[in-house]
């Protein structure tokens, strides 16, 4: 069979990375990245993928779009944003080893796995890149690495050196730890229904089981031979047959599709997605689901929901400083804040965490579970009228000022929706909360109204107060 020609005129990297079927090797890519001990530690301590898997995946896709398909200015902004994010990811793993996301060797591995995933996609589909194409692709890839300030000496010198580099890293550096096992065997089995399922949401438990089993089998089958040799993971014939059928079948199918369907991002830098449909808006999905209170005082149920759905960003049932940093990271992402505003917001939330931990961490282990949080919050609220003023309120004032992007001293409806919803949540769900906060009906929310809403959310004993609708309908 003759080689199918790729669309022109565009770089080879964009042509390969822009194809929809790159998603077939995305989980394999995540496994190889997360198996690096430093990445695993950073993921365990800072990532929100357990509690918010789809949001985390969308952020990763958005970042890739800016790095590989946007213009020079957007790439520079994204590069600077990633640098600021990585600066804060550091610590000591469970084995006592220090780690940092700024380590050039770690950053190089993360990037090389992306290049290797592109070549693997072509190889697994029976259409491997030629030596000349590999050299071209790697040269374009190294340009992106240079823009990210990854030292050239941390990368394999040439495309021909990449396979040996990957093989050596798998055999000598990677570890088959808890985070990797979670990605392979548990993440999809626990993931909530994606918002885009719409009317198919009731079928999600069944779809999830099938998708999890299929994706696990495909990913394990597609991992490099060095992985199977080192960690002894089985590669059954049925999984190998699945891999052969899926990759080759998708290759044949996608060559028959029009570019707007074949490509998520067209090689010229545009998107391959269909234009947005006009007409009836999508059904809104509640941002925060509050359990029906069993007593006259609705605060315990509201506090528990806030802990599980807002505070516990890493989804491990406990909250620590990393969870609040993850909250700030998500806000900074939504608002695309400059560095100086990011620093102010991080400092304010860190102060909130110190106040929260001082009155909440009953067993002194540096973390707060749900029961500790609810008990301590109720005790603090009932005992000290200024309890929120000492921690939460300063953080919320900083949050308001960050969201007030035009410096008007008020939040308009769009600014409010950007802060709490973002572009992936339909605005209609948050309109109710905005109207409740806009007490004087002037179409905007002042800082005092904003702070009062958060105060109501934590202190109101019934759900009739305006602030209880802060994040959508209860």
From TrEMBL:
GO molecular function: calcium ion binding; oxidoreductase activity
EF-hand domain: residues covered: 298-334, 425-460
Cited SUPFAM superfamilies: EF-hand
Listed Pfam families: EF-hand_7, MPAB_Lcp_cat
InterPro entries: EF-hand-dom_pair, EF_Hand_1_Ca_BS, EF_hand_dom, MPAB/Lcp_cat_dom
Disordered as annotated region, ranges: 265-284
Protein name: Calcium-binding protein
Organism: Streptomyces globosus
